[in-house]
Write a structure and sequence with these properties.
About 35% of the residues lie in helices and about 15% in strands. It is of the alpha/beta class and about 375 residues long. The chain has 2 domains: about 230 residues, Type I PLP-dependent aspartate aminotransferase-like (Major domain) (Aspartate Aminotransferase, domain 2, 3-Layer(aba) Sandwich), CATH 3.40.640; about 140 residues, Aspartate Aminotransferase, domain 1 (Alpha-Beta Complex). It has a 7-stranded mixed β-sheet with strand order 2-10-9-6-5-3-4, with helices on both faces. It has a 3-stranded antiparallel β-sheet with strand order 11-12-14. The protein has a two-stranded parallel sheet with strand order 1-13. The site of pyridoxal-5'-phosphate (PLP) has 14 residues, from helix 3 and helix 4.
């Protein structure tokens, strides 16, 4: 007889509210027959997110990638944009979709965010903007980036796809730069199945963004720009309103899991847990560790060991964006230009973290990583906790 298969543990699992609580929202949509185009739930979610996040203006989108593409159009960005190779590929794809040349600069060894010291050297007469990413929800060095932008008259668009709910000492991290873009994809801290948003500082910019996400329409018969269809539907917006009721609970559980990992992994030679980057409120969107030379296994061997126990950690971000075929011929994509990112991409492993992950599962994962620690028998019994 084959033993029962253990439930796999993935790097994330989407948070879903009780299904019966969603039915009344659907009944409302069925009654009023407004499915999209800025209906009542769309309006309510924009307001509720402004209140929750502590931002002034926010425009909902069908996903984060279309929001990034539109953010660049809203500010009429052209030429070259300085960005990070250490991100999800959508970051620089949004530049290619606008005919903009990405220029990669290296990341900071502690935060793995775009290194301000490397930005200035990458500026050319064609540079019009900087697109940094708050990787893992850890804030970029926003002050240094703004100083460079001011000195060279550049726009700053933050890819804040990981940074839902993150605050620094002055409030929401999303208030920095000219625009910030969120993703509400299923894998993110706050999800609407698919979705995203642009955060902007003034009402005038929001009007332009709202036009661009609706084909460039400004009225029944007037079209002012080659806009796209980036609108969020009423079903997604309604779902977002319900999700928002559970977000504090979800973030609190993530914080507990992160603290437990840190405690259990603290003494292991060669395992470095990435530290927070000065946030006052963190969101624990990911739990990245770096597998350094002092550890007995390579990153990939450790990843395989976890997989053998049905634990599917992920190598975010491997490979670097600059290594994909549509980018690798750029001069800035050369590894010599990106030594820190190139090292990190070989060492990083994101461990499972999501609100429904149980402490016993975290303990079992940590025991597998702690090779010199727990005897194998104990590890095996902890793995049984998955069944
Ligand atoms: C998820 C993600 C995106 C894309 O968002 P979608 O909503 O999936 O389109 C962009 N940038 C980063 C860094 C992401 O993690």
């Amino acid at each position: 007889m084959t033993p029962p298969r253990k439930d796999p543990v993935y790097v994330t699992q989407p948070h879903l509210p009780p299904l019966d609580e969603f039915i009344p929202y659907l009944e409302t949509i069925w009654a009023n027959k407004t499915l999209t185009n800025g209906g009542p739930f769309h309006h309510q979610l924009e307001q509720a997110l402004c209140d929750y996040l502590g931002v002034k203006h926010l425009s909902l989108f069908t996903n984060g990638t279309i929001a990034l593409v539109t953010a660049l159009q809203a500010l009429r960005i052209t030429g070259e944009v300085i960005t990070t190779p250490y991100s999800f590929v959508a970051t620089s794809h949004s530049l290619l979709w606008n005919g903009i040349k990405p220029v990669f600069a290296d990341v900071d060894p502690v935060t793995l965010n775009l290194d301000p010291a490397r930005i200035e050297a990458a500026i050319t007469p064609q540079t019009t903007a900087i697109m940094p990413v708050h990787v893992y929800g850890h804030p970029c060095d926003v002050e240094a980036i703004q100083t460079i932008a001011d000195n060279y008259n550049l726009k700053v668009i933050y890819d804040a796809a990981h940074a839902f709910g993150v605050q620094d000492a002055g409030g929401s991290i999303l208030r920095h730069g000219d625009l910030s873009v969120l993703s509400f994809h299923a894998t993110k801290v706050f999800n609407t199945f698919e979705g995203g948003a642009i955060i902007c500082p003034d009402a005038k910019t929001k009007v332009r963004i709202d036009q661009l996400k609706n084909f460039g329409h400004v009225g029944e018969v007037t079209v002012v720009a080659p806009g796209i269809n980036g609108k969020m539907s009423e079903v997604n917006a309604a779902f977002g309103l319900l999700q928002l009721k559970y977000i504090d609970q979800a973030l609190a559980r993530r914080a507990e899991i992160a603290a437990l990992y840190r405690e259990l992994l603290a003494g292991i030679d060669g395992i470095r847990c990435l530290q927070d980057a000065g946030e006052r409120v963190a969101n624990h969107a990911y739990f990245p560790i770096l597998v350094e030379p002092g550890y007995p296994l390579s990153r990939d061997a450790l990843n395989q060991k976890l997989r053998d126990h049905h634990i599917y950690a992920r190598r975010y971000f491997f490979p670097l964006i600059s290594e994909f075929p549509m980018y690798r011929s750029l001069a800035s994509a050369h590894r010599d230009n990106l030594p820190v990112a190139s090292a990190a991409t070989q060492q990083v492993l994101c461990l499972p973290i999501y609100p429904d992950l149980r402490n016993a599962q975290v303990e079992a994962i940590a025991a597998l990583i702690d090779i010199g620690g727990a005897p194998e028998a104990r590890t095996e019994s902890q793995i049984e906790a998955f069944a």
